[in-house]
Amino acid sequence: MLFALFILVRFHGETRFFYLYYMVPIAVPFVAFLLDRLEFFNQTTLAQHILDIFILALAILRNFVEIPLISGHAIFLTFALFSTRTKLARITAALVLVIVVLMKWYNWHDFYTPSGAFFSGTIAAFLYRHFKQRHVKKSGFELESR
Fold first, then answer.
1. Which of 14, 58, 88, 98 yields a CA-CA distance of 20 to 30 A from 29?
2. pLDDT, tens digit, for every residue of 56-85?
3. Cα gap 45→128, rounded to integer Å
């Protein structure tokens, strides 16, 4: 909400419109993602934390640097969709991902960056879940061996 108010005060014309319809909606799944990660923080491995930081940094960096075949919005939203555990985080990520992809396809005729980001985000989410499974199996093995 504060970001939207800042945009209304700071920007005008097409820039304002762009920020309002493209940048503001991602705030909802982002907050849901952060709350999901906070809720399960103690059950998360170091490798998962590092992967979270990497994906978030890549998505943010994408705003300032051209990264071929990656949409910052789409990689974050795909990763959030497939790696979070709460319904709120998954539903909001899915809805905003649909909006982002449709805007990229129809407004900017960009079929490549959402596709590359979806592929990369899905692989990252698979790794995120794999790191958790390895931790659970390792912990289970340690308990059985005692």
1. 14
2. 999 999 989 999 999 999 999 999 999 999
3. 9
